[in-house]
Amino acid sequence: MPDQPYHHGNLRSTLLEAAAASIERDGVDALSLRQLARDAGVSHAAPSRHFRDKRALLDALAEDGFNRLADTLEHAVAGEATTPREMRSRFDALASSYVSFALAQPTLLTLMFGLKHAPDANETLLAAGHASMAITMRVVIDAQSIGAIIDDDPQRIALVAFATFHGIATLASGGLLDGVPADALVSTAGELFWRGLQP
């Protein structure tokens, strides 16, 4: 059956969604614009209206991943938190949401951070990549503002927190936690981390 002409109303989103599923199933190397076009029922040339080549698709996929991650984290920390207990709950929700996102799409997460730190990373991708750290820093600064945690460099605290939970997600996705459930380790790490930040 010949390729159908371009007629898709929201082809860019369709291709990104299909690409995200494809890399989790078959890996990044197997990703093919031509196959995505066939799966979407459009001509093989139609994706070029949105992505000039595979690298452009991967950049867009990484950027979309960072945007979705930021939305996930924003939702997790939404609402007012004015007491130390509420700040701790917000921190726990942030950590849990990050690890859940990472475990749901580990190949995408690897792609996101790999392209963000590539020497030729574009500015749009870099900006999207910084959003999740900015949310983490905001949680830290809010907690500091009411004296719930120590008044230390918020960027350093946020980076250590981010590294801790990214590390847990990476180990869990690789099956390297020796049978310890990821959520249990996230809870324990959060408790120890927060205790270490007490004034």
Note the topology.
Blueprint lengths: L10 H16 L6 H8 L13 H23 L7 H21 L1 H11 L6 H23 L8 H20 L8 H15 L3
Helix pairs in contact: 1-2, 3-4, 3-5, 3-6, 4-6, 4-7, 4-8, 6-7, 7-8
Could you walk me through the main structural features you see in this protein, from its secondary elements to its overall organization?
The protein is an all-alpha fold. It has two domains: 1-52, Arc Repressor Mutant, subunit A (Orthogonal Bundle); 53-196, Tetracycline Repressor, domain 2 (Orthogonal Bundle). The protein contains eight helices and no strands. It has helices at residues 11-26, 33-40, 54-76, 84-104, 106-116, 123-145, 154-173, 182-196. Helix 1 (11-26) crosses helix 2 (33-40), helix 4 packs antiparallel against helix 6 and helix 7 (154-173) packs antiparallel against helix 8. It is elongated. The N and C termini lie far apart (68 Å).
State the gist of this model.
With 199 residues, the protein is mainly α.
- How can the largest sheet be summarized? none
Instruction: Return the CATH architecture of the largest domain.
Output: Orthogonal Bundle
CATH topology of the largest domain, by name, is: Tetracycline Repressor, domain 2
- In total, the number of domains comes to 2
Please identify the structural class as seen in this structure: mainly alpha
Reading the helices and strands in chain order gives: HHHHHHHH
- In angstroms, what is the radius of gyration? 20 Å
Mean pLDDT: 91
List keywords for this structure.
mainly alpha, 2 domains, Arc Repressor Mutant, subunit A, Tetracycline Repressor, domain 2, 0% strand, disordered N terminus, 199 residues, elongated
